[in-house]
Amino acid sequence: MAEGKALSFQDLILTLHAYWGKQGCVILQPYDMEVGAGTFHPATTLRALGPKPWNAAYVQPSRRPTDGRYGENPNRLQHYYQYQVIMKPSPANLQDLYLGSLMEIGIDPLVHDIRFVEDDWESPTLGAWGLGWEVWCDGMEVSQFTYFQQMGGYDCKPVAGELTYGLERLAMYIQGVDSVYNLKFNDAGVTYGDVFLDNEKQMSKWNFEVADTEKLFRWFKDCQAEWRQCIDNGVPLAAFEQAIKASHTFNLLQARGVISVQERASYMGQVRDMAKGSCEAWMESNGWTA
Amino acid sequence: MTDFLLELRCEEIPARMQLKASDDLARLFTEELAKSGLTPGAIDSFVTPRRLALIARDLPLETAAVSEEHKGPRTSAPPQALEGFLRKTGLTQDQLEDRDGVWFAVVNKPGRATADVLAQAIPAIIRAFPWPKSMRWGIASQTTESLRWVRPLQGIVAILGEDLISCEVDGIQSGYATLGHRFHHSGEITIGGASDYAEKLRACHVIVSHQERQSIIAEKSAQAAAAHGYTVVEDKGLIAENAGLTEWPVPLLGDFDSAFLEVPPEVIQLTLRINQKYFVLRDGEGKLAPAFICTANIEAKDGGAAIIAGNRKVLAARLSDARFFWEQDRKTRLEDHAKKLKRITFHEKLGTVADKVERVAKLARWLVEEGIVTPTTTVTPAKAGVSGGSVPTPEMPASAGMTKDRLADLAEQAARLCKADLVTEMVGEFPELQGVMGGYYARAEGLPDAVADAIRDHYKPVGQGDDVPTAPVTVAVSLADKLDTIFAFLSVDLAPTGSKDPFALRRSMIAGIAVLEFNNLRVHINQIILHWVSITFQQMSSDFQDATEQNRKNIALNQEITQLFSLIEIQKLTMVRDKIASVLEPKGGDAGRFQKWNELLQRGRNDEFIELRYKVLMFAGDRLKVQQKEAGVRHDLIDAVFALGGEDDLVRLLARVHALQSFVATDDGANLLAGYKRAANILKKEAPAQPTTVIPAKAGTHLPTEQPDTAATMDSRLRGNDGPLSYTPEIAEAALIAALDVAEPRTAQAVAAEDFEGAMAALATLRAPIDAFFESVTVNDPDADKRAARLALLARVRDAVHSVADFSKITG
Fold first, then answer.
1. Which residue of chain B is at minimal alpha-carbon distance from A159?
2. What is the DSSP string of A226-290?
3. ipTM of the complex
4. pTM of the model as a whole
5. Do A116 and B49 touch (CB under 8 A)?
């Protein structure tokens, strides 16, 4: 689109921060651990549980080792950014607030075709599901919009609304570029490629070729053991971190191609048990019941 | 009389749910009003992504007054009885009527205002609404008891005439106000009532009628296409889906780089339709055009230029991906792709897809070697009608003159490659293209057309109306694949149950029957099963060899087992299994491998392999019955043929059913049936102990595998009846004997020649003699000899008829 002066990648983030800050959201910084999606941030997973109101927005680097393409694919990255908003209970005007944010970053809904297309969300790993949409802008999915119904196997009381923007994709659209690496990161001549291309090349190599699988298998076991310790000692937040670590370690093992189809289900089950167990302990430690 | 408007406004309703929801609203509304005796004149339904609405015409303003009369106790009854009656009716004694010494209470219920009925009905409808998936939201969701709706419900408009029907559901209060188009109109709109609803919304860029939006999309996309010399590929489902995604549909045409057209058209079409919900276009020559139509939801300020540009870009990225897959996949030969099938589990109890492919390849070759599938299969037009498929162009030229050996080689080759595309990038992205992509890749690497066609078409027929394969290589692979799936799952007891058929075995069976019937393939299912079992055992044997070779030990054991397998005959299975088990147990070895082995042996020990024949035939029989019923064949006729039992040639079985269907529709058929029934009834009454040729043990439930020896039974009877009678038969009696003497051998010959029409024609000659016999001859003669001879004669009639079908199963 690129009409007028399009926002740089960092200004896109700053604009969203300012906008959601004004809507009463706590502006958080990214969680300092490897996660596959913004939903894994405890500010979403754990805060979606229980009765307390909670409004937050943050950028979350998301790591998906198997999506790495050594920096050669213009759309696929093993490390990219999600912008995540969670509002609990879901406000009655959440759709309008979301559309307001699109206008704020320069998308005019009378020039661009914005659509809410059915997309139900489910994360077996988190024992979570919700109903909502993927939001289309001129045929491109730019966000996911979900009303959480369950998290960690528990009914959400009250329901939280979750918005996830794919930042690179949105920025590419706003700036009218065809490769993520050509994105203007700022207005001083720095591109996304300047910042991340080497990272994509090296991390793709590590994810697919270098990572020591024996260590990874051991880490997975260590996370499980440590998780158990955390649960036994009543620190569910620490337990959840071990679940996050185990989940990412599993993703790395997948990228290394050392987990067979049959084993895959079993590993996923173990991660799910850790995530759900953490949620359960978190509920208990707060004195909340199902 | 007045009209009522109801609008339930919410956040975007999934497109696929809208039409059903619209019907459900009309139904629930009608039912709810009927409880109060109200019937609307007509109901108009509307649905958009953001609203579900209806207008009920000509509602009376009040329900009818009702007078109810209750009978009470006698006036002479004790006072307690009267008190109880007063309590029940809520009346006082002076309000009761004394009619001939009995108390009567007359309760007049005045009519209720329709407005009150509606105010109660609306919340009830909302709470009971049957959404396929519903959710909670907002502050109210602090409890799980809060209102559920498909997406957050935001507003209720309920107006009777011009009056607001005041009601409330979970904090949502009804009113006159609604919203227009999400982007074209800001602020609330006040609706006056049913009369201005649709027009007021239209003025605010909302077309409330789903049907009208569909028409707009169809017409405007056709116009846009025509302006570029293209036509739109008809797709009603996609029109409805786009009507469900828009309140103000605006079809816009965009193009894409024609260089993408090198990618197979199926891929481009799926990308357009499934991923982007675009309409596919064709050029003047009927070829895929490098253009698409998307349906926007706004009348854009710039005429849609930005929307088209955006959509082009998204599409280009998707098509680039598709082209990348297309190029990438072709860098690897199918046979190398096929090697990766070892990594894909077919089913945890049934090994990998590679194992399956191995069986299918062997079975496909065998089908050719046995002469079941020949280089010139014949498709008869009559069969085409039965299976419901269109008659495909005969592919004779491709295979005519092909030797059996060549056909067997091609069938095996195609079978070995038929699942290879499952591991390609393209099929990973578009699972719908399995088979189709394999066909393209096979052609691209220069494999014979017959092989590429077989890979492409071996899943066919998929559902009713789909083409049934006729090319011999395809027929061999298609049939082998379907039969292997059926046999494999039934062999581990994973038959469909009730409505659950997770492995689509019913569909496989129906499709397999269609391939057999359409191509007139004559085959005994029992024979195929035997061969499949031996293939499976070979597979186990080599599996076992792998295990031992990997361990580089037990060479002697390995040889012993191999020898055992070479000897396998189905009847000796148990013995062989036991032997294997006995030598295996003390040796141990690779734990995982042997565990699998032991499971297989366990499975064998339970005689499941031997039982497999029964299971398959039973399953095939069930499917055939369902298929024939759906094709309009009377189920009693199907039962009549199935009751004969012993038939595992499905083509012959169906020929018999069809001949019977034609026959009973004729006068001769109907009369013969009447005569048969009379004979059978007399026999049942007079000679109940007499055995019949129909073996009831398995009849009707499944096809027994052993042929009941009908011929032998009949022979002995005939001999018994051929002896001279001890009396002079009456004229009609003699005539019937003479007629049977002619008809019996004719019928038998015709049946042997599989000429079932001929067999029935022969039986039809019995009709007049039977009628005459019953007219003038007394069966139950006081003379015991006569009685016995005449009963025997009737038994001959019955048995003759049974050689074609068990007429006792036929009703009417």
1. B137
2. HHHHHHHTT-HHHHHHHHHHHHHHHHHHHHTT-S-HHHHHHHHHHHHHHHHHHHHHHHHHTT---
3. 0.94
4. 0.75
5. yes
